[in-house]
What does this fold into?
Amino acid sequence: MQKPRFQKWLPALFCGAVCYILFSAPELCARGVREALAICGNTVIPSLFPFMVVSGFLVHSGTSAALGRIAAPITARLFRLPGVSAGVILMSLVGGFPVGVKMTAQLLDAGQLTESQAKRMCLFCVNAGPAFVISAVGTTVLGSTCAGVLLYAALCLATLLLGICTQFFAEKEPCASKKERVLLLTNPAVALSDAVRESVYAMLQICAWVVLFGALGTYLQALPLPNTVTVLINCITEVTAGVHAAAGRFSLPMLAAVLAFSGLSVHCQILGELKHCGVRYSVFFLARLTACALSFLICAGLLKVFPCEISVFSANGTVVPAAYSVSAPSFLMLMLMSILLILEVEPRRKVC
It folds into this structure.
């Protein structure tokens, strides 16, 4: 199938836009890279790397499969998934955005999940960790730990509800895989070594995206954009900067929706795993929009039962480092990358 003519020009336009940003203001890009590298060392790596090692160890050691035997009745009834998925779902709720999808890809490689099951898990095993939502967003940005707890509860409930809804799209297959019935425990030292090696590689990928957004993010300060437009761009492209910019302007349910969407920067961090599991980005994007709606409704309902006050002016301080800086050019380029991915992968994707 021959590609439309405009698709052939998209890579050239993308490269041209990147070159224009790099050469028009190299000092801004250099400053953004330095700040992003500092954020990687101070925020991203300390908060994500331990959870990624633990999740990798659970898979490689066989512990996840062993614990899955206990949780098998629950996961089969709620999600129509094998018991080994319980560890992934739990780690996605406590470990942060990329952990759940990366762990799903590992279980798919290990043969403990089918491709259909991995696809469905990639749609809902994406969630912000409690340290980020409760401490950074709630206590620091909003000035209310209660608000952080409500946000985290809304996100977790929306994730689980979305996971329950995905069972209606499950193929007719047994919930337990063949390899799950045979318990194989690996040498802990070997499992830990494999987990650390894979986590280091994954952190390099994540930090590369952080640096890219940092290099492009400094452009936002130089653009004469209205404040409302800047806030919306931040919310769409990067969750940390988006929440910090929207605090005091958006209601708590809207902040829950921003956190559920997770930002295009997080999407880019897990694109490789999504493709490996056979998930089309268009489907994943639709799932994120569904999670936004569910989080908004659940948070609004929780506020009626557990009302709490937030500090209106707390967002004006610079108390939370922007883990992934963003800008209007980066927003356009990331949207262009999404279009490229969909157009490139869609014709070649096998129909399940």
